[in-house]
UniProtKB/TrEMBL annotation:
Protein name: Uncharacterized protein
Transport as UniProt keyword: no
Gene source species: Marinobacter similis
Keywords: Membrane, Transmembrane, Transmembrane helix
Domain of life: Bacteria
Transmembrane segments: 12-45, 51-69, 81-99, 119-146, 166-190, 196-216, 242-261, 305-323, 335-356, 368-391, 422-443
Origin organism lineage: Bacteria, Pseudomonadati, Pseudomonadota, Gammaproteobacteria, Pseudomonadales
Length: 446
């Protein structure tokens, strides 16, 4: 098979898995989707990173154990794998479509205007806002703007602070975004937790995190007013790009909560259908405008298929095994739950420091602790998971956004994690762990 044919086959298998995820309510389609995912992963073996290969090995080992010890758990694990794979592929499709919007250039240029503090907050909050529909595309857009500033004026405290803002803004997204894989995975493995309850706590936490970031930055001299590129427009025209993106995000969120709350669909399926609907509307609009409509290749997503799909498969089996091996009546001592809630963000972060993707850590955490957590105190566990996820995303050297920023700007991911963000990360880990532990303590009645 030629290289081009192989890539086309891998892309076709990924799109097939996406379709299976959307139609997973039909009998047998969830299992078919898992088969397509595994086939795409096997064909993309050469492109897998070391962590992905290790995770795939663990998935196959767990699959073998389940086939012998508990084969009845495999259909549910396969369906979970298909649903979350469809979710990540749909989000990537949405990101690809919106990433071509001319509004992005206008928005990103506006974010670099103003005084040093205003500029930092604009970049941080702007990246968090853009990451809701764009995911990693937001880092790419902002890092490209930073690179342009570096090419024009060289390395400076301004560009380093902007890079800090990008990392932290993207790290805030897993904490609060209704469309993030972190909240979807948390709700999946802690089903007693409602998405709106979690977001009601995590959104203020994310805002405080971004505001505190203004303290942890380099001093920089104010620049002359004419040294920062600004948009020569005012009024509604200036804010039109923001309003359009806000409208897209708002429509997706409304559709998600409506499908989940009014129609009883699972949260992961609601997000998938909402994002997929936005993609269809966008493609239809382009077609009406006479623009070329072409879907991106899904051949390069083998690592994402392993990390997201494999983690979902693994987490479902771990939850089943934990419930069986520990027993339905198993519980920790009352004092242990607040301690565990305090520790969860640290587990995420320390795992990230040695290269573990937060999806893997979240899968193991949710799969083991979810079934044994007091139902009345699941908000504490959920808060700990999304906070740990976000701090790991922003403050560890092996996160995908840190590596992408390094590739586009030249700023070392190690330096960003250890010198720029470590002190802030430790402080925020202490605060978020204490918050999660306190919530657990109060709600569990310990």
């Amino acid at each position: 098979m030629s290289r081009i044919s192989l890539l086309s086959t891998r892309s076709g298998l990924a799109y097939g898995a996406l379709g299976a995820g959307i139609l997973s309510f039909l009998p047998g389609v969830g299992e078919l989707g898992a088969v397509l995912v595994f086939a795409a992963i096997v064909l993309g073996w050469r492109d897998l990173r070391l962590v992905s290969r290790m995770l795939l090995g663990l998935v196959l080992l767990t699959l073998g154990l389940a086939a012998v010890a508990e084969p009845s758990a495999l259909p549910a694990a396969a369906a979970s794998m298909t649903r979350l794979t469809a979710l990540i592929l749909t989000v990537m499709l949405l990101s690809s479509m919106l990433g071509k919007s001319a509004d992005l250039g206008v928005i990103s240029r506006q974010l670099f205007a103003g005084s040093p503090m205003v500029r930092y907050y604009s970049v941080a909050f702007g990246t968090g806002f853009l990451s809701m529909p764009l995911n990693f595309g937001s880092v790419g857009v902002m890092a490209t703007m930073i690179r342009g500033q570096m090419d024009d004026r060289g390395d400076s405290a301004t560009t380093r602070n902007a890079s800090r803002g990008v990392l932290r803004g993207f790290g805030a997204s897993p904490i609060f975004s209704p469309l993030s894989i972190s909240i979807v995975l948390t709700i999946t493995f802690v089903p007693a937790l409602k998405s709106w309850e979690l977001i009601a706590v995590s959104l203020p936490l994310a805002v405080v995190y971004l505001l505190v970031g203004g303290v942890f930055r380099e001093p920089e001299p104010p620049e002359p007013a004419n040294s920062v590129l600004a948009e020569p427009v005012s009024g509604l025209q200036r804010y039109a790009p923001w309003l359009r993106f806000a409208g897209i995000i708002g429509a997706i969120c409304v559709a998600t909560f409506s499908l989940s709350g009014l129609f009883g669909l699972s949260y992961s399926r609601s997000v998938t259908l909402s994002c997929f609907g936005a993609v269809l509307v966008g493609l239809g609009y382009r077609k009406l405008k006479g623009a070329e409509v072409q879907l991106p290749s899904m051949a390069p997503v083998s690592n994402e298929l392993v990390i997201v799909g494999g983690s979902a498969f693994l987490g479902t089996l771990i939850s089943t095994f934990a419930a069986q091996w520990l027993g339905t009546d198993f519980s920790l001592p009352g004092w242990a739950y607040p301690v565990a809630a305090f520790s969860v963000p640290w587990v995420f972060f320390l795992g990230g420091m040695i290269g573990f993707n937060p999806i893997v850590t979240g899968t193991l955490t949710g799969g083991i602790l979810g079934p044994i957590w007091p139902v009345g105190a699941v908000l504490g566990l959920g808060t700990a998971m999304v906070a740990g996820w976000g701090l790991t995303t922003a403050g560890t050297p092996y996160s995908a956004n840190s590596l992408l920023l390094e590739r586009l700007t030249g700023y070392s991911a190690q330096e960003a994690a250890l010198r720029w963000n470590m002190l802030m990360s430790v402080c925020c880990l202490l605060v978020s762990g204490a918050l999660a532990g306190t919530i657990t303590l109060l709600l569990s009645g310990t």
